[in-house]
Design goal:
The chain has 218 residues and is mostly helical. It has one domain (12-214). It has helices at 12-45, 66-86, 93-110, 127-151, 158-184, 189-214. Helix 2 runs antiparallel to helix 3, helix 3 (93-110) runs antiparallel to helix 4 and helix 5 (158-184) packs antiparallel against helix 6 (189-214). It is globular and about 60 Å long.
Length: 218
C-alpha cells in the first residue's frame, strides 16, 4: 500500500485539492482587496453627490473615474468566483450563489446607468438603468444568500459558519431597509448610507472568509 502523501497514495489527490482551494482563497483575498480599493477610490475621488447618491454613479459614462470603477467591480466579481472555488468540499448552494453574484456583478459593471442612476418609482429610468439596477440587486442578494447557505451548511467549518451567520444577520435587515426606503422614500442619504453599509459588509465578509480559508482556520 502506498504511503500517505506519496505518488499513488489515496490521500494525494485530496492534498492537492486542499492546496488548490487554499491558493484560490489567497487569490480571492487579493482580488477582493484590489477591487474594494479601486471602487472606493472611484467613489471618493469622483464628483458624485456624496451619500445622497448611489455607489454606481462613479461608473457612469463620462466620469473621470469610470474605468477605475469598472475594473474594481470586475475584480470584486473575480473575488467571488475565487471564494466559491475555495470553499470546502460538500458545500452545495453557496458556491453556485457566489457564482451568480459574480456574473451579475460583472453585468452591473458592464452596463452603466445614466446620470444619477435613476430608479423607479420616483424617477424615470432608461432600459440601461433598469438592467444595471436589477443586476446590482441580484448580485447583492446572491451574496447575502450565500452567507445564509454557509451559516447552515454542515460541510463548512465552524469559523466559516459563524462568520457567515453573523454577517448575514446584519445584512438581511439592511437589505430589507433599502428595499423599503427605495419604495417609500427614494434617493437620499438614507438609501446612500444603507447601500454603503451593505456593500462594506459584503466586502469585509469576503475578505475575512477568504483569509480564514487561506490560513486553513475554518
Amino acid at each position: 500500500m502506498a504511503e500517505p502523501g506519496r505518488p499513488g497514495s489515496t490521500t494525494a489527490p485530496a492534498v492537492r485539492a486542499d492546496v488548490a482551494r487554499r491558493a484560490a482563497a489567497s487569490a480571492a483575498v487579493g482580488s477582493t482587496l484590489a477591487g474594494a480599493v479601486a471602487v472606493t477610490v472611484a467613489v471618493v475621488a469622483g464628483p458624485g453627490p456624496g451619500l445622497t447618491g448611489y455607489v454606481s454613479e462613479a461608473g457612469i459614462a463620462g466620469s473621470a473615474h469610470a474605468t477605475t470603477y469598472r475594473i474594481g467591480i470586475l475584480a470584486l466579481a473575480g473575488g467571488l468566483l475565487l471564494l466559491a472555488a475555495a470553499l470546502p468540499p460538500g458545500v452545495r448552494a453557496a458556491p453556485a450563489l457566489l457564482a451568480v453574484g459574480a456574473v451579475f456583478s460583472s453585468v452591473s459593471g458592464a452596463v452603466t446607468c445614466s446620470a444619477g442612476c435613476p430608479l423607479p418609482p420616483f424617477e424615470r429610468s432608461t432600459v440601461a438603468d433598469l438592467v444595471h439596477g436589477g443586476a446590482s440587486i441580484v448580485a447583492t442578494a446572491a451574496v447575502v444568500l450565500a452567507m445564509v447557505a454557509l451559516a447552515v451548511s454542515g460541510a463548512a467549518g465552524p469559523a466559516v459558519r459563524r462568520l457567515a451567520g453573523g454577517v448575514a444577520g446584519l445584512a438581511l435587515p439592511l437589505c430589507a431597509a433599502v428595499g423599503l426606503a427605495l419604495l417609500l422614500v427614494g434617493r437620499g442619504e438614507l438609501v446612500g448610507v444603507l447601500e454603503r453599509l451593505i456593500l462594506a459588509l459584503a466586502v469585509l465578509w469576503g475578505l475575512v472568509t477568504a483569509t480564514v480559508l487561506a490560513l486553513d482556520r475554518r
